[in-house]
Amino acid sequence: MTYEQLIDIRRALHRIPELGFQEYKTQAFLLDYLKSLPNERVEIKSWKTGIFVKINGINPAKTIGYRADIDGLPITEETGFEFQSEHIGQMHACGHDFHMTIALGILTHFARNPIDDDLLFIFQPAEEGPGGAEPMLQSTEMKQWKPDMITALHISPDLPVGSIATKPGLLFANTSELYVDLKGKGGHAAYPHTTQDMVVAACSLVTQLQSIVARNVDPLDSAVVTIGKIAGGTVQNIIAERARIEGTIRTLSVESMKKVKERIEALVHGVEIGYNCEAVIDYGAMYHQVFNEEQLTDEFIEFVNDDPHTKFILCKEAMTGEDFGYMLADIPGFMFWLGVESEYGLHHAKLQPNEEAIIKAVSLMCNYITFKANQG
Ligand SMILES: CC(=O)N[C@@H](CCC[C@H](N)C(=O)O)C(=O)O
């Protein structure tokens, strides 16, 4: 595929971001493109709003897997691009338009130039939530076509174009969403003594939650408790009967996740008593940590280091979450960052990843997959 074709695909996908398990237009776009490929060796199976694509090898000894996530985020885009999102309130602000385009670029190369091994491309819905990797892993399609190794990339706005970063072992954190619904007794703004104000209770809870990382987690360990949304009340002169906070928890170990949740539960219970209200906690979706298999990752690092067009950066683990962690817990493989240098970061309305990174990633991964297939 040419540079221009890749850019056209990325921009077309960028226009139509959709939230988890609602990726209907995205799936239709991908299927349309896939059907245009030489079909002697290509098998396609839709799974919910995702897709499995198998490219049958000439003399397969193994199956190499490659996963791309396909969902967008509930953010109103502010890039001002001519190809800006057509879906108000939704944006590819985590680079999944890049991820899909790169996967299509690699896949197209091997559909036209088959190699010995079988290849499995996975276009996975709902990475941002509630999680598509785990159910896809359990699907009959995956059981039938299960790869022997698997890889995936994520764009990194912090790194320069032409660079790749990863590390063996732990790369991304364990995650859990967090929702707390508070219910008290609302009433007239002028009679607070007859009510239990859930705006005040929610604000107090958010402040108290900050003490968990500061005072309950070992400073040499790491954790994140972020509240991304707080909502409550109706108008300025009614005391709120209900409030809701929404957040996410990140830890580097399963034990720390357990401890952080215990502290959250204790603080929420304290708010129930202190503010005379009812509280319900829901942990929503939880993601397994991303843990890179050592041998394959070391080999990939060596491969990248030998590539004169790519700079390798050994990175630290990040508090990002990725449900690709479920696939890596079952199939040997690794994940890595792709440098796309953007002034604005992931999950920002002005994220502007540099498109030059797309063709570089396609070329690197075509070479890597060929190298793996040549190992027999
Ligand atoms: C790569 C990335 O940004 N992933 C998301 C995964 C979100 C998981 C879940 N919805 C949560 O918020 O816990 C991330 O925010 O790290």
TrEMBL record:
Keyword Nuclease in record: no
Entry keywords, A to Z: Amino-acid biosynthesis, Diaminopimelate biosynthesis, Hydrolase, Lysine biosynthesis, Manganese, Metal-binding
Cofactor list: Mn(2+)
Active site positions: D69, E128
Record-listed E.C. numbers: 3.5.1.47
Signal sequence annotation: none
Enzyme class: hydrolase
Pfam families attached to this UniProt entry: M20_dimer (PF07687), Peptidase_M20 (PF01546)
Entry note: cofactor: The Mn(2+) ion enhances activity.
GO biological process, one term: diaminopimelate biosynthetic process
One MF term in the entry's GO annotations: N-acetyldiaminopimelate deacetylase activity
Keyword Hydrolase: yes
Record-linked SUPFAM superfamilies: Bacterial exopeptidase dimerisation domain, Zn-dependent exopeptidases
InterPro entries on file: AcetylDAP_deacetylase, Amidohydrolase, Bact_exopeptidase_dim_dom, Peptidase_M20, Peptidase_M20_dimer
Domain of life, source organism: Bacteria
Catalytic activity: N-acetyl-(2S,6S)-2,6-diaminopimelate + H2O = (2S,6S)-2,6-diaminopimelate + acetate
Residues given in the record as Mn(2+) binding sites: C94, H96, E128, H154, H347
Record pathway: Amino-acid biosynthesis; L-lysine biosynthesis via DAP pathway; LL-2,6-diaminopimelate from (S)-tetrahydrodipicolinate (acetylase route): step 3/3
Domain Peptidase M20 dimerisation: 180-268
NCBIfam families: amidohydrolases (TIGR01891)
PANTHER family referenced in this protein's UniProt entry, alphabetically: N-ACETYLDIAMINOPIMELATE DEACETYLASE, PEPTIDASE M20 FAMILY MEMBER
Role of this protein: Catalyzes the conversion of N-acetyl-diaminopimelate to diaminopimelate and acetate.
Family affiliation: Belongs to the peptidase M20A family. N-acetyldiaminopimelate deacetylase subfamily.
Protein name, entry field: N-acetyldiaminopimelate deacetylase
Species this chain originates from: Metabacillus arenae
Lineage: Bacteria, Bacillati, Bacillota, Bacilli, Bacillales
